[in-house]
Amino acid sequence: MSIVTKINRDDIINGKAGKRPGKPKGGVFHNDYGAMTPQQYVAWLIARRKEGRLGLGFAPYYINSSAILRADNTGNKAWHTANNEGNAWYLGYEVTQSFYGIISDKEFILNEDMTLRQMAEDFHFYGLKPNKETVRLHSEFSATSCPHRSWDLHGKSTNALKDYLITKVTRYMSLGKTVEEMLKKEGVSAPTVTVPNKVTPQPDGKTVKVGKQATHWETGSAIPKFVIGQVYDVLASKPVNNPKSKKAYLIGKGKVATGWLLEQDVDGFKTAGGGNTNKATPTTKPSVTGTTTESQSIAGVRMFLNRWFYGGLTIDNSAGPATRKALVKALQMELNSQFKAGLIVDGLWGVKTKNACVTVRKGANGNLTRLIQAALICKGYDVKGFDGKFGDGLDKAVKNFQGTKGLKVDGLVGQGTSEALFK
Predict the structure, then answer these.
(1) Same-domain pairing of 129 and 173
(2) What is the CA radius of gyration of the chain?
(3) Is 321 exposed, middle or buried (0-12, 13-18, 19+ CB in 10 A)?
(4) pLDDT digits (tens, 9 = 90+) for 373-401
(5) Together in a domain, 209 and 304
(6) CATH number of domain containing 157
(7) Per residue in 31-66, pLDDT tens?
(8) Which domain holds residue 367?
C-alpha cells in the first residue's frame, strides 16, 4: 500500500499562466480556507479552467496527509499570490481542508507536514536552501490572512511561523530527496484519510436556512451575524450528542465551507431529527467556480472578495479604504482574466484600469456584474440581489447612482460610471 497518493496532472492547468522565467526562488506556503481534499480539487480546477476562470487563482500543489495533487508542471508560473513576483518566481503549496471545524488541529498538522515534505523534495530538485528568503508566506505578497490556520497554530507572527516551517523543511530535506524516501526514513505508515471524518456527503441541491435562534457553531465558536437568515448548501453531515440535535450540518457556498451548524439552529426546526432538513429547498445550487450567494451587505461583499479575489479582509460592515482597494484589485483581476487587459493587480485606480473597463449593461451575467453590485452595495444602494445578474433592480440602482454623480443616466456601466464607482 502506498504511503501517499501522488496525483501528477500537468494537463489540468497546462501552462495557462506561462513559463517560469528561470529556476524558482522558493516556495509560498498557503492554507486553502476550505474543506476539499486534493482529489476533489481535480474536478474543481478542471471546471475553473473550462469556464476560463483560472485567473481567479490556482496553486501548483494541493496537499493533505494522504494525497499530493500537482496541477501543473513546476516549470510554469501559477496565479497563487495575487502578486507578479510571487506568481512568476515562487512555487505554491496549498494545505487543504484548513477551514476550522473540518478536522482537528492534530490532523491539520499532518496535512501541513505532507505539504512541507513536498516543498523539501522540490527544494532538493532545484538546489534551494530553506531560509527566510526561500520559504515564504502568502501574506508576504498580498493583503490576505493566508495561511490563517498555520498562523494561529505556530506563533501568530511572520517570524515565528517562518522559523517553524524552515525548521521542518530542513529536517525533511535531511531525511531524503523525495517524499517517499522521507516517509520511509521516518517509518510513517500509510495515513488514514481523515476528511470528511465520520461525515456523510449530502445529495446535490440540499440546502438549509440558518435560523434566527442560531448563536454558536457546533464547534463552540460564535456564528457571525451576517450568516443568520442566509440559505447555504449542505456539504456534509455528522451525528452529534446534543440534547436538541442529533445531527450537525457542514454548510457553505458551492464547495467552500462556512461552518458546522447544529440541527436545532436550522430555520423551521421542530424536534431533533425534524424541521425542514430532510428535503431539498427549491433553490439553484451555486457553482464551485465563483458564483455564490453571499448576502446583499458590505459583510457579504467582503466575504466574496476574500473567497474569490484574495481580499484578505475582516468580515464586517466597513466600506473603508481596504474594501475599496480590494474591489479595484478584484476588478483588475477580472479584466485580466476575461479580456487579457494586462493590468498590474495593485488595487490602485489609474488611467490603464479605467481604459480597460468594458461597458456592462442590463442582461449581463457574471463577476463583472457582481463587482458592480458590490461597489454599489458599499455605497449604500439597494441592487435587489448580490447574484451577478444585471436585472431591473441593478439597472435602477445604476441609474440612481449616475443621477447622483451628475453622469448620463442610461444604466450603462462604462468607463465613466466605473471610475465613479471604483475610484
Answers:
(1) yes
(2) 22
(3) exposed
(4) 999 999 989 998 888 889 999 999 999 99
(5) no
(6) 3.40.80.10
(7) 987 778 899 899 889 988 888 888 888 999 999 999
(8) 298-422
